[in-house]
Amino acid sequence: LENSIISQSSLFEHLMNQAKTTFETGEELKAAEELIGNMDRKGFITSPLEEISFLSNIKLSLLERVLEKIQ
To answer: Is the pTM above the cut of 0.85?
Structure first.
């Protein structure tokens, strides 16, 4: 269990570092952080985009656009 927590943290950190070099605006980076934060340890989004949009107050269209770049 401890190793999976470390792996998850490392995956999040790795993807966020990539996002910082990929996305140009703070809005895109915030969307990327929300999406990455909702990934399981295999890299799959675990919540519907509509729910992430509602809870984070980020437009669904922005989440979809950022998700395309992440994939």
So the answer is: no
